[in-house]
Queue: 2 jobs
Job 1
Amino acid sequence: MLKPDVIKELSAVVGADHVMTANEDMIIYSNDATMFNAKPEAIVQPGSRDEVVEIVKIADRHHLPVTCRGAGTCLSGGPIPLKGGIVLEMTRMNRILKVDPVNKVAVVEPGVIAFALTTAANKVGLLYPPDPSSLKESTLGGNVSECAGGPKGVKYGITRNFVLGVEAVLSDGSIVKTGNEVDGDMAGPDWTMLFTGSEGTLGVIISITLRLVPIPAVKKTMMAIYDRLEDAAKTVSVTMASGIIPTTLEIMDNLSIVSVENYLKIGLPVKAGGLLLIEVDGVESTVEEDAKRVSEICKKCGASEVKMAKTPAEAEELWLARRSINPAFGQVAPCKFAEDATVPRSLVPVLVEKVLEIQKKYDVPIFICGHAGDGNMHPTIMFDKRNKEQKERAEKALHEVHIVTLELGGTLSGEHGIGFAKAPYLRAETGLAGYKLGQEIKKAVDPTGILNPGKMFFYEGELH
Amino acid sequence: MNQTERRRVIEQEVIKCSRCGTCRSICPVFLAENNENTTARSKNRMMEAVLEGDVELTPGVQERFEKCLLCKACKAHCGSGVATDKLIMEGRAAAVAHNGLSPAKKMAFTGLRYRKLFDLGLRTGALFQNLIFKKLPDGRGCVPRILLPGAGLNQRRIMPNMTTNPLRSRLPKFIKAKTPVSKGRVLFFTGCMLNYMYPEPGEAVVSILTRNGWDVVIPEEQCCCGTPAFTSGDVETGRFLAEQNIKAISAEKHDHIVTACASCGAALKHEYKHILDNSSLLSTWQEISTKVLDISQFVLKYCDLSKLGKLPFKVTYHDPCHLVRGMNVSSEPREILKSIPGLKFVEMKDANRCCGAGGSFSAVYYELSRKINDKKLDNVEDTGMDYLVTGCSSCRMHITDGLTQRNSSVKVLHTAEVINMAYDAASRKEGKAC
Ligand SMILES: Cc1cc2nc3c(=O)[nH]c(=O)nc-3n(C[C@H](O)[C@H](O)[C@H](O)COP(=O)(O)OP(=O)(O)OC[C@H]3O[C@@H](n4cnc5c(N)ncnc54)[C@H](O)[C@@H]3O)c2cc1C
């Protein structure tokens, strides 16, 4: 519980309407999209950068933890206030400050929903490519903080490839500006990249400058259907080796297909072992050619059928299946470990085989899907937390997925972040020296340690 | 179901929510308030905390369950299909059992239980409404003269004129088909809004039915469908009213049951199942529920669309929540409208998004419900059409209120009124021809 004086101070900055302290509020803001929770002591909703500065100063003075929150769709526990204190909900700061079609940049406040920017960019003929499945819910502040990825990552890259600069409030209330609108360049190391993926542990992001690209003239969408999931995985590495870079290369296993079909009834091939959703974009002449070649590769790798969308509506239908996997998880079991194990693209078939083995070994349902084209897979382990024994099996399976990923030279987190859900494995990925450096950097930028404590390099549990 | 079973069912539903937050892009209340407290996942979280004993059924919890339109958009949008609407009703019922109803609601629901009293109350209400309301000079409705916050009467709010001559007093109990041979008998469940507020669409329903060869029966003993009560957590009154209606309906011979009110229809067709959980009338209801059709479904299935005459109207259509998600009716009214010769139909943006009425929601949270409604009105006006057609009187009231306040020229009509006008247009032409 915060002292009444502190609450008064906070209210004086943002107005009493934007400070919540009721127990009911604390329960609601104790969550993100994981199954973990920890209650804050107050939720503050700043409406401007000046208010953020003032709030952080108050927190600093009283040594209160500050945990930023966007839409709370994080899959690694990022916005959960592990150590209590203040949850800083950034969604009121949701203005798109500028979309500049000439220089192809956008400047936004952190609370802007990603989809709002996509729409605004489209209006002036530009594209903001990062497209996490949570596009319509998650905020750009959250996207930058987690370095969100999406299906378009294969060709365009993930959020990091589009952040030119940020402005962030440091834990003493000062504002740091990194990067620039031209090309993101800045003297010295890449400060912007320091904040990208920093998960609210280094500063409160108050403004973001993003790069936009021209909308491709045409695109072609297709779905390749396989009897065996392994063949679908093989197609990924063969395609990438062929020199064609599709915009999208998404994989879905049988469990994903069946669950989505149960939910949407759109006529998906429920008997298939796996399928690939593939999109190529660019100028007309090459797109036609690429699509034809990809389709041939699919068939050579064992696809029983390749469906080519003839109209935008048909393409949208093919996409619908992929977009609906996440919401369909709940049909199989109520709880999940939604992983984003990422390996070099050429090793996707190996990872798939390993996960299939893990699934068998521990007898837990695992959805195998993800952005296969950039090696960013989403093995999602399903369980019911009320069933202790099953939960234990799921945890063991999760552990093995982490280990296998690292053994394959991959990363624990292609896009969902470390938070504290994956923090126990962080040292195993960075190595001791890297882990120490991570701690030192955090200490240098946030010496009082009030920003999102207990996460990433400051996890307090046992490390693997 | 006993208490333990009920608890298990609730738990089972709550745990299905993965907290993914997909509801954030669809919940109209969240979109207007931008506060996590109002999302479906948070309501589920609240329920979970109550079940786990982390929090009592405090007024704070009760308020969080209250602040929901029950528009079912979250459920329709949710991949796990979490029935948040049901959970909220459970939450409301539990909170009411724990904390009681607000005095204004308590009074209203006691009235609902006594049909005659309620009838009298509303009719006297109509006679005396000039004391409470000030009629607008253009006859579009009335605004309250004095503030009755308990009844949700905001000074701004424009209510339709209550009729002194309700639908069920205008019409006899039995009405014969206008054709030489009758095709069968339709039971018309009028509901309160058509009876007391908007009798004209009710008359249109009867006219549509009889001119298409159907006899109509309007049971006198029918009463409020119970939706306002059971959605507010007053399950007892809800059950009382449901049972009364089932008795009234099953007492009359009929082939079909027609409703022209989204909430009544959804209640009769689906919601009663939940309300009549332990009732001896459950099996009677099951039989009844299979016969319930919204007027648009009935027209499409059993009426002659080729006899619809020319109507030079420019219309758009708003999907009432309880029709589109409550009864799964959305293509039917559109198909009918598009088959009316001369009528121009333009789809509005987000036609199936809640208008913000939500029954007593708009009474308790009037300003918020206006804010939600404003989006709807913008979308309506953007179509450039002259008429907004819809199948729910509660939506109609709320949208009309908004349109009037912004001096819009758009008028609202019930689907049944448009259909009947089209039939009228054809018979007028025929009349001229011979
Ligand atoms: C159904 C579903 C699908 C998803 N699909 C994808 C996907 O395809 N790709 C993907 O990458 N992720 C995906 N995610 C994960 C999640 O949506 C992303 O991590 C997203 O970027 C989080 O954004 P948010 O606004 O919800 O942030 P939050 O969850 O609120 O916060 C995330 C982190 O960012 C920090 N933060 C937020 N705002 C600020 C700020 N202004 N300054 C500093 N720190 C801040 C928080 O402290 C926290 O650590 C999915 C999640 C769900 C539930």
Note: The CA atoms of residues 366 and 381 of chain A lie 4 Å apart.
Job 2
Amino acid sequence: MQNHDQLTIERLGGFGGFGGPHLKSKGELSLSGLSAEDLRAVDRLFPGDRQVSAPKTDGFRYRITRWSGSELQTIEVSEEEVPPFIQSAVKDSLE
Amino acid sequence: MSCTCFIIPKDVLERLSKDPELSKELRQASKDTARVSSAMRNLRDQASLLTSATRTVGIMELQLAPFPAVKVYDCKHHQTLPGTSVPNSGTSPDLTASRTFKETTAVANFYKQVFGRNSIDGVGMTMLSSIHYGTNYNNAMWNGAQMIYGDGDNQIFIDFTAGNDVIGHELTHGVTQHTLQLAYSGDAGGLNESLSDCFGTMFRQWEANQDVNHADWLIGHDILGPVAKTKGFTCLRNMANPADPHALAPQPTKYAQITPGMDPHYSSGPPNLAFYLSCKSVGGKSWEKVGQIWYRALTGFPPSPNMKMKEFADRTRKLATQMYPAAPAVATAVGQAWKQIGL
Ligand SMILES: [Zn+2]
């Protein structure tokens, strides 16, 4: 279960179709370890009325989850919208 | 203006531009950034609209060049596009640069010689590629204006330019953008991906001068890294057997197995299989007959962003009859292939 300090990140899609049965790309960040500027960047990704952005051909998408009050909040955005410190938190693996 | 501005969603920027707690300068900066971001995001849509408009008024005959220029840029492991121009990239000591130049030129030749098409847009558009994108970047993509290639992490994948099918695949996304203009979700998304695999694999077979029986029909075979190979994987996708357990991304084989929201790299399985079955049944070289039908279905009609797979199947059935009236076996092969995947 994701704890309240965690930001969990999953990178999906791309030419290889990450997020399928074998190709995975996942990571997490501790929110308490982020600078005030990075925390603001996270907040900006999570407006309540956020739409899923249009996917680009073979571009990566990021599924990002955090706690908002008592609920888990998840967004899915294309790579160009994701700050570099979140992009670099994921690690590709084979399952 | 800092480039990080572009990662802020438009709605947030618009809200900031009206926030009374911010200084006048910050509000103006947010407003300006929203305008520029919006323009950037609309660029691809406008390119598509321009393509349609020029076709409608019949000025597509205005060729930019008889053969497209091929340009290679080096991102030097950053993610700023396009990067630094690689001079004389065809003879560059950087093997990724020289390979990208050579294979991109070969794709241009393939489209020209086999289908009579001049570049991505049909009128000689420069083919621009950026290599060494990011660090250990396990991806290649078409961003609406150019190709982008990562070097891979040398574990799961190696340099993405090592696969000529990858290069053919990415360039075909550009062709689709300038013709059928398929969306990237639902049936249209799966078709979009499938067309890139079909033309990517046809290009690979054309370069090797292989017939349908000698081809391996694998996508991504040449970019697998040592860890993937050690675990027994042979490809990303297998067009002849989309459900192949040796594929890193095994796919459904029947249209009915496609689920809502499925990633287009998975929903492309059934139409990939229909293309393979058609080619195998007709025999010879994939690009000689079935490839010609698929090309006409892609480029010979107005844009159809939300096309259903059934519509595409019916279009290829009709084209097979029209294009090869003296060889009814071609239409039978195409019809049977679609039937086998449930369309
Ligand atoms: Zn693709």
Note: Chain B touches chain A through 44 residues (CB under 8 Å).
